[in-house]
Input
Amino acid sequence: MEIIIKCPVCNASNNLNENEKICRRCKNDLSLLFLVKLFSYKYRIIFAQLLLSDNIEEAKENLQKATDLCKEI
Ligand SMILES: [Zn+2]
Output
């Protein structure tokens, strides 16, 4: 899975994946940011699945988790 992450050090936009988690410009390690955003996507997928099965309250909780994880990225 490829995820776009803006480097907090040099502001470069990076397309990161499981094998490439280093900023293309300044070479900083962005693996923790990658992991946080990956979990946010995971919660979004769970949110959609719960919504489709009419499990609204649990869906809302997962959407909130996804939102909280990506506030700072
Ligand atoms: Zn950078």
Remarks:
- Residues 3-69 form one domain.
- Residues 6 and 70 are 12 Å apart (CA to CA).
